[in-house]
């Protein structure tokens, strides 16, 4: 079974874990997954540039057989001609195991090989056999370990966020392996130095998110023209919908909590939660829509806000430039290791994977701030006439309602909600 995973690094991670489960279901040997080149991400990185191949193969050996290449006798086959190429269009979203057994297994028996091209979110969360759900969990939280190159710079990034404290965090070893302890070497006499705490923030406000939302962000006619032009190129199906259907107005979308939080709104939320000018913030991602002017509110109130580009020297970050997936891996490490993690869009794949990782390894002590955008929208609409103390109380109440670590709801991703019998041995961790 071959898989070419599409999307960015986080979508590809989910695809790889799903592929492992499907290979086990079909009793197939899995060829080491390929990562598809995307015109959006423009990254030629392959699996071995991001994850440790040998660890991946050996860790999953009790569950499935994984090989690095297709056997020689199958390499000459024209897979498309013989019907062994299966695309996302051929597989329903959230397909059940029965779909694969009915439609894919016969192809595998007939041609001895099947190649999934795309393979995004193509395996259901429920109903699914216990051993397959457990295998997806093992793949995500154990089998996929970053290569030493990423781990080393990720450890450096964490260390600088903590201002070179000698303590290492709860999740560091799971993220950066042996490099979690490298900072202790030769510094035993400083072992008492406490770790500086920091907040990680994933501000999902890139142009693709902004344009696809169909919301209004106060930029007037110029903004509307710019976003409309972007949609014409990148979201033709959405543009077709706009022509044929009556879609909700920007105001209606906002009131329903369907618009991304703007940087200005994020500032208000964080300030209401008690974060202040002294707070050290690691900002994940890049290319915030609107650039420096849009970020001014954040950087003014939080002068200790930094990105990986600020933390690392040009020589340290140079090997990762032009490799967006490898840069995203550094963001994943910086966010997951943080003392607190705040997201502005709970639908983001990065935010989902980071929050799941923090639940799985955090022992109930790694808080994640997941705003209820509908509640916040109602509060923000009244912020011209509301007293700060009242505003602060309402924001904290809105955030508190999303604070608990829930057991995995039926049908929801095990990557985001690992607190279930198939994934975690102990599901009674305090929230």
UniProtKB/TrEMBL annotation:
<protein>
    <recommendedName>
        <fullName>O-fucosyltransferase family protein</fullName>
    </recommendedName>
</protein>
<dbReference type="GO" id="GO:0006004">
    <property type="term" value="P:fucose metabolic process"/>
</dbReference>
<keyword id="KW-0472">Membrane</keyword>
<dbReference type="GO" id="GO:0016020">
    <property type="term" value="C:membrane"/>
</dbReference>
<keyword id="KW-1133">Transmembrane helix</keyword>
<keyword id="KW-0294">Fucose metabolism</keyword>
<keyword id="KW-0119">Carbohydrate metabolism</keyword>
<keyword id="KW-0808">Transferase</keyword>
<dbReference type="InterPro" id="IPR024709">
    <property type="entry name" value="FucosylTrfase_pln"/>
</dbReference>
<keyword id="KW-0812">Transmembrane</keyword>
<keyword id="KW-0328">Glycosyltransferase</keyword>
<dbReference type="GO" id="GO:0016757">
    <property type="term" value="F:glycosyltransferase activity"/>
</dbReference>
<dbReference type="InterPro" id="IPR052272">
    <property type="entry name" value="GT106_glycosyltransferase"/>
</dbReference>
<keyword id="KW-0325">Glycoprotein</keyword>
<dbReference type="Pfam" id="PF10250">
    <property type="entry name" value="O-FucT"/>
</dbReference>
<dbReference type="InterPro" id="IPR019378">
    <property type="entry name" value="GDP-Fuc_O-FucTrfase"/>
</dbReference>
<comment type="pathway">
    <text>Glycan metabolism.</text>
</comment>
<comment type="similarity">
    <text>Belongs to the glycosyltransferase GT106 family.</text>
</comment>
């Amino acid at each position: 079974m071959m898989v070419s995973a599409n999307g960015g690094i986080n979508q590809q991670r989910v695809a790889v874990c799903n592929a492992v489960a499907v290979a086990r279901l079909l009793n197939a040997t899995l060829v080491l997954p390929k990562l598809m080149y995307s015109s959006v991400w423009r990254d030629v990185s392959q699996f071995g540039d991001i994850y440790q191949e040998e660890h991946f193969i050996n860790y999953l050996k009790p569950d499935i057989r994984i090989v690095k290449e297709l056997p020689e006798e199958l390499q000459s086959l024209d897979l498309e001609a013989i019907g062994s190429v299966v695309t996302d269009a051929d597989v329903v979203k959230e397909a059940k195991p029965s779909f694969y057994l009915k439609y894919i297994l016969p192809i595998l028996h007939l041609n001895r090989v099947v190649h999934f091209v795309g393979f995004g979110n193509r395996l259901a969360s429920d109903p699914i056999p216990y051993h397959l759900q457990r295998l997806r969990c093992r793949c995500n939280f154990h089998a996929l370990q970053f290569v030493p190159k990423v781990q080393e710079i990720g450890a450096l990034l964490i260390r600088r966020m903590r201002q070179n404290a000698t303590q290492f965090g709860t999740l560091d070893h799971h993220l950066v392996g042996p490099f979690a302890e490298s900072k202790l070497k030769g510094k035993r006499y400083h072992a008492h130095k406490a770790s500086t705490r920091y907040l990680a923030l994933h501000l999902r406000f890139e142009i693709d998110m902004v344009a696809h939302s169909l919301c209004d962000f106060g930029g007037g006619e110029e903004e509307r023209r710019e976003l409309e032009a972007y949609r014409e190129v990148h979201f033709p199906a959405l543009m077709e919908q706009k022509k044929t259907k009556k879609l909700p107005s920007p105001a209606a979308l906002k009131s329903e909590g369907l618009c991304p939080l703007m940087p200005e709104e994020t500032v208000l939320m964080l300030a209401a939660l008690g974060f202040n000018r002294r707070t050290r913030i690691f900002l994940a991602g890049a290319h915030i829509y609107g650039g420096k002017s849009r970020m001014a509110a954040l950087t003014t109130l939080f002068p200790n806000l930094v990105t990986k580009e600020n933390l690392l020297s040009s020589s340290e970050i140079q090997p990762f430039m032009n490799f967006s997936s490898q840069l995203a891996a550094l963001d994943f490490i910086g966010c997951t290791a943080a003392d607190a993690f705040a997201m502005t869009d709970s639908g983001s794949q990065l935010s989902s994977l980071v929050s799941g990782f923090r639940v799985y390894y955090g022992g109930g002590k790694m808080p994640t701030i997941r705003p209820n955008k509908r509640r916040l929208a109602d509060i923000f609409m009244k912020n011209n006439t509301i007293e700060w103390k009242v505003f602060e109380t309402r924001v904290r109440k809105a955030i508190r309602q999303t604070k608990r670590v829930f057991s995995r709801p039926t049908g929801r991703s095990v990557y985001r909600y690992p607190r279930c019998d198939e994934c975690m041995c102990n599901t009674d961790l305090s929230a």
